[in-house]
UniProtKB/TrEMBL annotation, chain A:
One of its GO terms (molecular function) is symporter activity. One of its GO terms (cellular component) is plasma membrane. The lineage of its organism: Bacteria, Bacillati, Actinomycetota, Actinomycetes, Micrococcales. Its main location: membrane. This is Sodium:proline symporter. Residues 544-565 are annotated as: Disordered.
From TrEMBL, chain B:
The chain crosses the membrane at residues 6-28. It comes from the Bacteria. It comes from Kocuria dechangensis. InterPro entries: Trnsprt_adja_ssu-like. This is Uncharacterized protein. Keywords: Membrane, Transmembrane, Transmembrane helix.
Length: 565, 43
């Protein structure tokens, strides 16, 4: 039953009550954070020493956003029983695959705040600008996307309009994040993850039973195509799984919300944090995706023909009142936890990369002004995201662009932390070259016949090797990575050449990886530079001298404006 | 896949989620108690 055909299940008072309960509760949690020791560093990284429970909950909550729940359900409905796996499993594994890189980054820059700040210490301004710029665009789009999800949910389940819903969500998130920044974000993430995971534990089995239980799989089997009924569906892998593998590796490496938690967790707890977040994210998102599979078996048609409506539609149609309220809190929790992380990420970039390093050049950082810059950034970012969300713009193209930018950054960023020969020129040129090739490939400007598409596919073959090689490199080092990358390229070549041109999203991502890798390698391999990685630790550090973190290495010319410990 | 296997396939995820939730809550409780004992902020 499409929601358009029925009255909103929530009244005004109930909707307001649930929003006040959720945002009032998170605000009270954040208000308990003491402000006597408030400083710019704890506003950005909570002193680099948070424990396993808080950090793992926060990493899980941040990685699960409302869109991932909707998309997993859509994947289950579109591709059948393997659909949720091809959304959730790869996203989860990427958290695991980036953890060795996370440990390395934390080792060379123990007191950094943003990845862009570390890139500035490693290379210089242009590399920093690329990372900071891509994160600003990415986080604003993510904010907007979460506000849109919240507005759509509220307008679907209550008498409030879409715009009223967007404003309510934006005000609620800003309310509890503004004062304590990252500390509020990670602390409230715990409550939000309990709400989200608790809801999954209850709602998935409940919907399974309400839709018919085990007999649904017999009675509804005819609703599935052979591909949808196949656990090893090639359709699901090529259309959903493979492009997603390439995309999320880029998102995980380049995303400041993940980097911020990496710099915040106690260094010896990075591994258990990432492993727990991997399992937590995977089980939650795949579990929610099962609702799409159940809807497919039940023969439910998405309202307006849009599979994105399926999750709220099934919930509104089948869940009894209390469970529908639990569902509402689950979605509000998922979008709020990501939105507050985006606000914290944006404020950190403004504080560390724009104000901190801009002022550092002139010889002094005022920590109070720095905090003001962070809070002002949150307000401005929220306002911008609300305006764009209210316009209900199609965000897909922007997301694709940011995804490609991060895809182009992955190899140069990772290589910059391991290979002393990588220069600022190699970093910058390789990213720009990758983007220049990506754009025409992704947007269909490459002709479908002739030599050019074959050349693009050859680059995609290299891209397959790069993605696989990077995954192996973090755990096992250079030689196994080269072997796996080479074997991966050779094995994929027969399936890519002459064939992949029909899958532009996947081809574009792979080409971005390949070109940035080839150009970065070519410009670096003969370089006489041998960068001393200890320099990064000396060039990044806390901005205030009362941070809880231990002393940073001695400041040099760049960090002269930072606190001397 | 048989209905029994599909049932297990659908319901195993909430069970895994419950396990992760238990781990997170236990760790959070332990850290909160430690912070209280030591008179410091949790984050």
């Amino acid at each position: 039953m499409p929601p358009a055909d029925m009255d909103p299940p929530f009244g005004l008072l109930l909707t307001l009550g649930l929003l006040v309960l959720f945002y009032g509760g998170t605000f009270l949690m954040s208000a308990r954070i003491g402000h006597k020791e408030e400083n710019a560093d704890s506003y950005m990284t909570a002193g680099h020493g948070i424990g396993f429970g808080v950090s793992a909950a926060s990493m899980t909550a941040t990685w699960i956003w409302a869109s991932s729940m909707y998309a997993s359900v859509t994947s289950g409905y579109t591709y059948g029983i393997s659909g949720p796996i091809h959304y959730g499993l790869w996203g989860a594994l990427m958290i695991l695959f980036i953890y060795p890189f996370g440990r390395r980054i934390r080792k060379v820059a123990p007191h950094a705040h943003t990845l862009a700040e570390v890139m500035y210490a490693r290379h210089g301004r242009s590399s920093q600008l690329m990372l900071a710029g891509s994160n600003v665009v990415g986080s604003v789009i993510s904010l907007m996307s979460n506000f849109i999800a919240g507005g759509a949910l509220i307008s679907m389940l209550s008498p409030f309009s879409f715009v009223q819903g967007v404003v309510a969500i934006a005000a609620g998130v800003l309310l509890y994040t503004l004062w304590s920044g990252f500390r509020a974000s990670v602390l409230t993430d715990f409550a939000q993850v309990v709400a989200m995971l608790g809801a999954v534990v209850v709602i998935v089995p409940a919907l399974f039973l309400l839709l018919g239980g085990p007999s649904l799989f017999t009675e509804g089997a005819e609703n599935l195509s052979p591909q949808q009924a196949d656990f090893f569906s090639a359709d699901a892998f090529l259309n959903q799984g493979a492009p997603y593998i390439a995309a999320v590796l880029a998102y995980a490496i380049g995303n400041q919300t993940i980097a911020q938690r990496l710099f915040a967790v106690r260094e010896d707890l990075i591994k258990p944090t990432f492993v727990t977040a991997t399992i937590g994210y995977g089980a939650t998102v795949i579990g929610i995706g099962m609702i799409g599979v159940l809807a497919l078996y039940a023969g439910i048609t998405p309202a307006g023909g849009d599979p994105n409506n399926l999750l709220p539609q099934v919930a509104a149609s089948y869940l009894p009142g209390v469970l529908l309220a639990v569902f509402f809190i689950m979605i509000i929790g998922s979008l709020s936890s990501t939105a507050d992380s985006d606000l914290s990420a944006l404020s950190s970039i403004a504080m560390a990369d724009i104000y901190g390093q801009g002022v550092a050049r002139r010889g002094g950082v005022d920590p109070k002004r720095m905090l003001f810059v962070g809070r002002l950034t949150m307000v401005v970012a929220t306002a911008v995201a609300v305006v764009f969300a209210s316009l209900q713009l199609n965000i897909l193209d922007l997301l694709v662009f940011v995804g490609a930018l991060w895809g182009a950054l992955v190899f140069p960023v990772i290589a910059s932390f391991y290979w002393g020969k990588v220069t600022n020129r190699a970093f910058t040129v390789s990213v720009l070259a990758a983007l220049a090739v990506f754009l025409p490939v992704r947007f269909g400007a490459v002709p479908g016949t002739g030599l050019l598409p074959l050349l693009v596919e050859a680059l995609a073959v290299v891209g397959v090797g790069v993605v696989l090689g990077l995954m192996v490199f973090g755990f096992l080092g250079t030689r196994p990575a080269l072997v796996v990358g080479l074997l991966g390229s050779l094995a994929s070549a027969p399936f890519v050449l002459g064939f992949l041109r029909d899958y532009q999203a996947l081809t574009g991502s792979l080409v971005a990886y390949a070109v940035s890798t080839l150009v970065c390698w070519a410009l670096s391999v003969r370089s006489a530079t041998d960068f001393d990685f200890a320099e990064i630790g000396r060039r990044t550090g806390d901005f205030t001298d009362d941070a809880a973190a231990p002393a940073a290495p001695p400041a040099d010319a760049l960090s002269g404006a930072r606190a001397e410990h | 896949m048989s209905p029994f296997v599909l049932t297990l396939y659908v319901l195993v995820w909430p069970v895994l989620v419950a396990g992760v939730l238990a781990v997170l809550c236990t760790a959070f409780g332990r850290e909160a108690a430690e912070a209280r004992r030591e008179g410091r902020e949790l984050v």
